[in-house]
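Section handout 9: paired folding examples.
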Amino acid sequence: MQDVYIIGVGILRFGKHKNETVRSMAEKVIINALEDAGIDKKDLQAGYFSNSFWGLFDGQHSIRGQVVFRGMGIDKIPVVNVENACAGASSALHLAYTAVRAGMVDVAIAVGSEKLTSSDKAKSLQSYSACMDVTNIEGTLNGLMGYGRNLTIELPPEDENAQRSVFMDIYGMMARWHMNKYGTTQRHLAVVASKNHFHASLNPYAQYQNVMSVEEVMNDVPVIYPLTRAMCAPVGDGAAAAIVCSENFLKKHGKGRAVRIRASVLVQGSDRDYDGEDIGERVGKLAYNAAGVGPEDIDTAELHDATAYGELHQCECMGFCPPGEGGPYAESGATKLGGDRPINTSGGLEGRGHPIGASGLAQIHELVTQLRGEAGPRQVEGARIALAQNGGGSIGIEEAAMCIHVLERV
């Protein structure tokens, strides 16, 4: 087994790209990553392509990665198409890492590209249900409703006509459960979102680049209590890529701005009960053990925050704070630039955006940029070890898939 390094990254600003396609966005970030790595497309020995909905919206199934790579003159190499819902891009990187670490190839590229915007907004929102067991959506939702039983907190009336994806309902239920059990408040969630919008304002690749105060977040359009629009990831398009290589390849080409992958762990969820070990806790322990580090060693992290509650919850799962203290931890300022452990310096999914098949690699782009010391006004001073946590889909009462990477500055 040999060490694996990220030598090139590429990203397209996330947003609503009417004139772009899944293919055109992927081509751009592949070119960006190759230029960043200082290598030619002929050097690539394997490709892993993440996308969830190209087939649903445009009918392109089965050979999505091959269509992209062959169109760029990248042929003959093995190409694997990856679907793991919101964790697809990080799963693609995990496969690239695995191939290089096993010595099967010396250089591989992971690409994620997704186009979610559509003239049919309802279709875009409904597409998210494909990230669940479609034969048992009602059963899954009924199981998740357990989070809403025996609540003592007072809930405001809901807008029955509000348009939202099914995952906002899931996050809303889990947030209310956390509020009821630990005393977390809507303001705690607003602090998380306000912080992420501030970080996004410093990121030229973010979909939203507007600063929002805590009060503005709380007073934004309600989605489902306690979540407001500013606490939720927007629908959008985008792409990102990362090139990984072996230590032997790196020695021949010089270390340059390489970043070492200390751990890459991919798991699926389990049929646990509400008090069982969360998938985030379980995979976090595996990642820390593989990397030989602990939560206290992480200088900065990108956590999967499809809503502000997602970040709050994962701060606890990753061991950055005790269970139930994610809200006070955020309010302390620890997760903001200048704090003890800045989190989602990219703006996270709430600010940077969340084109499903690309989000995991966007996290990697941000952390590589941080570890290289090239993040400009959002730079985390002295960042040496970073963590990316990326969850996807839902089965039972937790994510269907989750991937964690631990990266280290060389």
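Moving on to protein 2 of 2.
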Amino acid sequence: MSGAENTWIRGVLLHCSPAPAGPHPEAEAACAALDAARGDLDRLSGERHPCTKQYDPVTVSATGAWRGRPTAWHKTFANACELAVATGAVFRF
């Protein structure tokens, strides 16, 4: 995950199989969200709530495998609130 000026802020490892594990603080919720989206990060249900129009871009990426299938995803959101609305627990760390 990165914020303003393309600075690295943080990253975390998440394992969902055979059971949620790793240093992700919400591993169980993140794995449940990924399972519901069938591993497609564009289909995450996120957390529906209003956000301000403040522009403070946040870029997130995920690489790994979902049920043995390689996965790579990268997206920039207008701000951290927009990220939470779109991705929920997956990037809440």
